[in-house]
Amino acid sequence: MFTILVVEDDKAIRDMLTMFLTSNNYEVEAAEDGKQALDYLHKSTPDLLLLDWMLPDTDGVDLIPRIRDLPVHKDLPVLMLTARAEEADKIKGLDVGADDYMTKPVSLQELDARIRALIRRSQGLNQQQLLTQGTITLDPDNNAVEINGEKIKIGGMEYRLLHFFMKNPERLYSRSQLLDSVWGQTVFVEERTVDVHIMRLRKILKNNGVDSMLKTIRGMGYRFGAKED
Asked: Which domains does the chain have, with CATH numbers?
C-alpha cells in the first residue's frame, strides 16, 4: 500500500481528500501546515506528497525546495493543488520542483489518475508486464500484488523490494546492494533498514504461505525465487 502525505490547511478539503484516497487503497497521512509536513518528512518517507499552495505558515512553493534539500526526499513526487489558475503560477510551481499541478476544485478521478501516473513514474514501473514467481504475481501497471490468486496489502517499500527481487530472481544481493538498487545511491539510510523491511516483507509472505521464497544467506545477504536449494 502506497502512502500519501496530504498537506492542506482547509480541514473540509483535507478530510475529503483523506476519505477519497483511503477509499482508493492508499495509506494517508495529513498535515495542516508546512511545519507539520516537515516534522513528518524528517521521520517518514511517503510515496507521494499532495501539497496545497497556500498554507498558514508558508507557501507550498517555498516548502518544496526545503523538502528537496532532504536527501531521502530528493525524488519524492509532489503534486501541487492550488486555486491559482494563471499560467505563470503553474510555471512557478513546476520550476521550484513540483512534478504536477492541479487547479482547485479538482476532479477526484483525474486526481487519482495523476497520482497513479506519478507513482508509477517514480518507481520506474510504467508499462511493464506482469511478473510471476511461483504463486506470486506482481502487476506494475496497477501497483498490485496477488498471492495464490488473492490481492494482498503491501507497504510501499516492501512493494519496491518485492518488485526488485521478482525482476532479479535467484540472485544473491547484499544489504548494501539492495540499498543502492531499491533505495537509491543518493539516499542515506543505514543497512539495518534493509533488515527491517525484509522482515516486514517476509511476514507478508509468511501470512500467505510463501515465505520460503525469500531466503537469508547468512553473512552474505538475501535471495528470492521459487527454486529450491
From this structure: 3-123 (3.40.50.2300), 131-224 (1.10.10.10)
Predicted TM-score of the model (pTM):
0.57
For residue 79, give the amino acid letter.
L
> Which of 121, 132, 147 is CA-nearest to residue 204?
147
Written as one letter, the residue type at 219 is G
Instruction: Enumerate the β-bridge partners of residue 101.
Output: 80
Instruction: Write out pLDDT tens, residues 22-80.
Output: 998 899 999 999 999 999 998 888 999 999 988 999 888 889 988 888 877 888 899 98
N-terminal to C-terminal alpha carbon distance within the chain: 31
User: What is the rounded CA–CA span in Å between residue 73 and residue 87?
Assistant: 27
Cell triple for 213: 521464497
The answer to whether 27 and 45 have CB atoms below 8 angstroms apart is no
The CB-side HSE value for 27 (13 A sphere, CA atoms) comes to: 12
- The per-residue pLDDT for range 175-201, each reduced to its tens digit, is 888 888 887 755 566 778 888 899 999
Whether cis (ω within 30° of 0) applies to the bond prior to 56 is no
For 157, the enclosing helix (H) or strand (E) is: helix 156-167
